[in-house]
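Let us begin with a simple case.
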Amino acid sequence: MWDAVDADLLAGRWNVIVLWERSRTEKRLRRERDEARERAQRAEAAATRPQRSEVERLAAEALRQPGDFWLLAGEDIAPWIADDGDVDADAVRARAAEEAGKRPGMAGVVRRRDPDQGDGDSATRTPTIRDWLRQAPC
């Protein structure tokens, strides 16, 4: 009688051990899968970072904050990449100009030259009285 009870207990323990091992294996596989997904996402982000920077540089020609381009046009970079893998500059410029036209507050600031402030030390500066006095014969 005790032999049958011992056999049942051993079989039950064996089933518990098998289930426990299976659970550990499944957890390990899930963890490895999640880590692989994270690595793939990081690799994709690193690959698109230069392209995103180029899109923002082109959008800066029309928008005050180039990062706003992604808010207006969506986060996906695929529509702004040409078939050859480069950024489609004309499409980005057109969309940025279109959005700047719709939302004037987002348009880039046009910096105008203030003639009262001077041009700095440029090669074509206009002569001053000091220059005339230096050139005057004594």
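The second case is a distinct protein. As before, the sequence precedes its structure tokens.
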Amino acid sequence: MAESEKTPKTPAKKAPASKAASQTTPAAAAPAPAVAAVPQTNVLAIVSLVAGVAGLTVLPFLGSIVAVVTGHIGRKELRAKGPSGDGLAIAGLITGYIGIGLGLLVAIILFIFFGALVAAGGYYGYK
């Protein structure tokens, strides 16, 4: 007898039907933690506040006018859409109106001062 006849035959192993069925799937990753949505602040409200502060310090009259205009537009957008920033817009309006008021007050005082100076004769020469 041949040696191949003496060894018992083992059944042939079947190839897996598909690779996906034979592979194990890795465990699913943990879900990312939920982040609370922060409402976006209105850009015009921020511009109004910055321009209002600039109107009181660096750009006396121009910054105040920009603060009032952007503050009113920003509040109109806030009523329509609803993002946060109403307090910033109100603060910009207040600083803008204060800056305009102070600018007008200084202009009136200067007008009166120079008007009185001209009315007094304006000539202060040596005799």
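Residues 43-118 form one domain. The helical segments are 3-6, 19-22, 43-57, 62-80, 86-119.
Keep these points in mind for the review questions at the end of the chapter.
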